[in-house]
Amino acid sequence: MIAILGAGKMGEALLSGVLRAGRRPAELMATVRREERGALLRERYGIEIVPNVEAAARAETLILAVKPQDMGVLLDEVGPKAPPGRLVISMAAGITTGFIQERLPEGVPVVRVMSNTPVLVDQAMSVISPGSHAGEEHLKLAEELLAPVGKVLRIPESLQDGATALSGSGPAYFYFLVEAMVDAGILLGMPRAAALEMVVQSAVGAAVMLRDSGEHPVLLREAVTSPGGTTISAIRELERHGVRAAVLEAIEAARNRGRELAGG
User: Which of 12-21, 40-49, 149-158, 200-209 comes out lowest in average pLDDT?
Assistant: First the structure.
């Protein structure tokens, strides 16, 4: 039995992915803050909606999908009710496995996960790290649960704040770039809808080529950049305005902010 504690958007996306991967609704339960949200999930997926304490007592795997600021309260509630032998998977940004382990019975294995919003379209990037009591079998179980909604990568927990900045926040950086490119299209006289369609398809095509070709991004970019052509003129301007340095500093700032939030 798997319980998703705090089935918001990310929790629901994981829930639906697990069901599409072949799990039966009877193998899943969820907890919610609002009664109407529970009714919606029950109607949509046919799963059981239970209180947090009951989920902790009954499920073999607990997925903590609440917001980071709610994690302490949740663990204070369910920690004493979680019998040894449970696997706890945390999806909360910035919350360390140590923080969780301190509030659970001794020896409970914890796996920390950072996923991102493309989980909603089964294209998530999920990075996982084991706590001090989690072994290979626990990591494999976490991978099995997350694989239906995207790609899964193991990293040391010391890199989790960096992963939050790079892939957790990563989709926002691409949306920001798309927004700027669409504005450029409008500046050049394009209708907004046409500019958006061109930019989105360019982004999708470039991402698929990058993923499937195995080529380094520098080589793919050079293939578009003809001597004395239009692309090199654009890249000169990007470099002149320090776009590369801005990206480095932005992602480092996101990492630092994640550390601040984790520290309270």
Answer: 12-21
Are 27 and 135 members of one domain?
yes
Q: Please indicate, yes or no, if residue 164 is contained in any of the structural domains.
A: no
Give the per-residue pLDDT at 264.
60
Which amino acid type is present at position 40? L
* Angle, CA 87 vertex, CA 82 and CA 89 arms, to 5°: 105
Q: How many residues appear in the chain?
A: 264
Judgement on whether residues 109 and 7 belong to the same structural domain of the protein: yes
Q: Exposed, middle or buried by CB within 10 Å (0-12, 13-18, 19+), for 190?
A: middle
Q: Is the pLDDT of residue 212 over 70?
A: yes
Does a structural domain hold residue 134?
Answer: yes
pLDDT band at residue 90 using 50, 70 and 90 as cut-offs: very high
State the total domains in the chain.
Answer: 2
Q: Where is the domain boundary, 157, 188, 221?
A: 157
Range of the domain at 251: 170-262
Q: What is the CATH number of the domain that holds 213?
A: 1.10.3730.10
Task: Tell me whether strands 110-114 and 124-130 are parallel, antiparallel or unpaired.
Answer: antiparallel
Q: Rounded to an integer, what distance in angstroms lies between the CA atom of residue 178 and that of residue 10? A: 23
Residue 168 pLDDT exceeds 90? yes
- The chain-wide mean pLDDT, for the chain, equals 92
Is 72 inside a domain boundary? yes
0.90 exceeded by pTM: no
Characterize 243-261 residue by residue with b for buried, 16 or more Cβ atoms within 10 angstroms of its Cβ, and e for exposed: eeeeeeeebeebbeebeee
